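Before relying on records like the one below, remember that each one covers exactly one chain. Contacts with other chains, cofactors or solvent are not represented anywhere in the record.
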Amino acid sequence: MTNNSEKKIAIIAGRDPRIAEDTDGGSVFLKYLFTELVNRDNEVDIFTPLGVTAASFKKEKAEEQLKEKNNKINPKFNYIPLKEKNLLVEKDSDYFLRRIERAKELADFFKENSLFNYDLVYILHLANAFSLVSQNLLPLEKTVFFPMMTSAHYNIFSKVPEEYIKQEKQVLSKAKHISSPSDDEIREIISKFKIEKEKFFKVHRGFNENCFPAQERFEIGTEKKLNLFSANGIRQQKDHLFLIPVVKYLIKKGFKVKVHLTGNDGKSHNPLYNEYLKNFLREIHFYNLEKEFIIHGVVSEEEMVSIMSSSDIAVYPSIVETFGKSVLESVVSGLPTVVCKDVPAFSEFIEHGVTGCITDRNTEDYCKEIIKLWEDHDYYHRISQNGIALRQKFSWHEVIDNLLMKQKERGVL
């Protein structure tokens, strides 16, 4: 595609990809979005709250950000200082109310209309735009919104306050360009908020080809041993409690099982996630499964790949995903992957029996698919090969090329 050179681009996000241990999907998307834009000779400014992860302020993170700050490089990181630093998240509604407060302070930072000086503005997560939109501080014709997750999905596992939903509706109603990674997210937003379909355009998420190498798998082996892998953080929407009966079922069938989990280590910004992890650990202890579940905590991408490479099958029992970044990384790395069919976003890159395995959300069907992968070497190998074949389509370079092409078609640039 034609090089989209010498554009001045602002990215407003609630994440900081320079915090090494943050491998959340939003942070990873931000990292490769700005990397690809800079590689195309754009001037990129990133704006993110100082010391904040989602809704909570952490002094340690603020200190690390300021230590890493270097405004002479491209992209240029701009850390937005906040007044209300001690607003804690203790229950579901707190998280969403705090994000409303953060949005007000973010708008104060741009009250001089500085965003109108950019050729293009990206907003990662609608909550970052609440007050920017209500105060008319965004050039909407050249602003692209990435919802990331809305109450259409949050409501599945949390109670979302009406005020938050009202703010989402306002942003979506005024937005001109909304980029989503999946047909499912587009359908959910249109259905819940009654937004015109013409506002949306679909661009998949990607993966880092250098970090996640292809590893063709031929068979698991004749011994009844299974190393399972899941890279999602242990929290409500990922439904890791589902894996406990799965492991019990497999043990009854004579398998020796190890489940390797990476993500939330009990120090999440959201105490509700930490409580879910405690509950998960209690359940493991209750069923004497401490040896079967290996919790690695928050790890770098490199460490994650090392764990993945020694695993046989990836398992993702998520109950909601707008795309499924971790699942894609497993699939394109050649690790046969099992997901549940009630998460439609996975169909963007998984076809059952071809590039992965999609089952009903019940223990027996889920385990039957795992056992089939162990028994049928041809099936296991074929899924591994077909997953690897998706690599070019989902490389970050290809994904951002597609983003820029669709923006151009819409007249954003």
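DSSP finds 14 helices and 15 strands in the chain.
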